[in-house]
Batch of 4 targets.
Target 1
Amino acid sequence: MARLTVNNQPVQYRLEDDTPLLWALRDAANLTGTKYGCGTGECGACMVIVDGQAMPSCTLSLGEAEGRNVTTIEGLSGDRSHPVQQALVAEQAIQCGFCTPGIVMAAAALLTTNASPTDEDIARAITNICRCGVYPRLTRAIQRAARVMRGEETISAAPPPAIVAPGAG
């Protein structure tokens, strides 16, 4: 049984230690914002933040995650107000959206450790594959999020509306 912290909540998974963290998050915890892409850690769709570092959850086992602090896209910002999320929307750096959660997590981890990343820093840190090819807008969005986080700029755009279950709103 693996014990770890997910989105600031202590969690115990009754799964085999060699189970990929991705499947524990998606299947056991219903945190489906973390996507399955390649299964080899190359595409970045499954990126989560583990102890402050962006990591692909498809190659990290529950045993390796034992005792660690994991943040998923759901835990980053429940209302989509994180500067990276806001900047991606403002810069129109989202196309189909499949890769977006992984990119947001990689960018958030980068900006936590580097408040003023260069284009080269961004290219090294954001290795996520985006089939839609938003890379130039993505770089602008991350630079913009960095300015917001440094207090040099604000983004007036509201978060995208949440999906509301029928009869709930």
Note: The first helix runs from residue 21 to 28.
Target 2
Amino acid sequence: MNSEIDVGDAASLIRSANRILVIGCSGGGKTTMSLQICKRLALPFVSMDRDFFWLPGWVNRPKTEERALIAAKVAEERWLMDGTGPSTFDLRLPRADVVIWVRMPRMVCMWGVISRVVKWYGHERLAMAPGCPERLDWQFLRYVWNFEQKEAPKVVAGLEQHGPDVPVFQLKTRRDIRALLDLLDASA
């Protein structure tokens, strides 16, 4: 996994990409940044949660149906796909031109999740499926708290297995995100 791409090179790769995968822990700012990139580059926004994972009432979509929907979407020529889900890297990575890994510190992600819940509790966010109002539970907080320890190794393994030649750019601070967006603005 190549994570040593500098922000200038990343902006250039992103600007020329037709298919961008944005991954990372919940609450890190993936969706906010993804929407900004889509706006700047006129890319269709695809949310893994909204478009594939969830049915109304927080019901998981059956895996076979989920994978069929993902396969159809990744076959399209242009998209930005927001969501981690390493179990579907086999479908998504071979079609991605670049991966942006929003890899914020644990406390930034926790703050992001709590802030999001305060803002949206009981209402549906843009990136969430209809009939899935914002909520919070201990299982989800544990997932966020343990992301780097438990989930990041799966992400790294999936990137190496299914996208060894796909450039991966890691953003580890809000300043990194701002720098990337500023460079994309400067090229517009």
Note: The mean pLDDT is 93.
Target 3
Amino acid sequence: MSDFRVLSPTMLASPQIGPADVVEAAGQGVSLIINNRPDGESPGEPQGPEIEAAARKAGLDYLAIPIGSAGFGEPQVEAMQQAIGNANGKVLAYCRSGTRSTLLWSLAQARAGEDIDAIAATARQAGYDVSPVRAAMDALSAQSKS
């Protein structure tokens, strides 16, 4: 059973998914799966190529934007913002617990000029805390307005 959490009408976050979750995502209108987990992080779980193959088989787009131990950087935030903006339907982003995916989504939303408090409230409602990246969200939001 999947654990897709709603961040917006077009954005879902999830803990690690498997091929059956990809089929369920397609049934829920997802058109793009974003993998925020580096391959090899947990060898016993499905790796990117397996999820990508399942996505392609289900007619979905797939993109890897891995977030490893080095954390978040501007290229990852920009890639996430572009992926979300270019998606033709719902987006499902996943990592080990869904937290990195939600944090990256939050940063991308802030970079796009979305309301910071609304982003935080939405993430909290989905069970995620964006306080670890709140200062970065504030900075990205300020940059988007200048």
Note: The chain has one domain: 5-144.
Target 4
Amino acid sequence: MASHIKITKAPGTWTVRAGGAVLGESSAALELREGDYPPVIYFPRSDIAMAFLDASDETSHCPHKGDASYYSVITKSRTLSNAVWSYEAPKDAVSEIKDYLAFYDMDEIAVEQI
């Protein structure tokens, strides 16, 4: 793994909400720390209500993690474009995040430990 990336099991149970709806809850979430960036919580895809997510054409590349795919969150009042990302085929050094989703920190999305 890149020396500046650390992946550990996130302690406790985590939830993600958007537009008043609970998108998921997990006690199997992962915490990814990368350099000086704030930690990111990754949720197992199986713990997220995928019906609220719509795959987008957006992609990005990280030299340490690989290619990311994006999803928009569909709420009752609006669509939060490209608010979720996933590494479908991450680099071997971060293979733990395969089949996990992460959510951007924004006013309309709350990722919280419960």
Note: The radius of gyration is 13 Å.
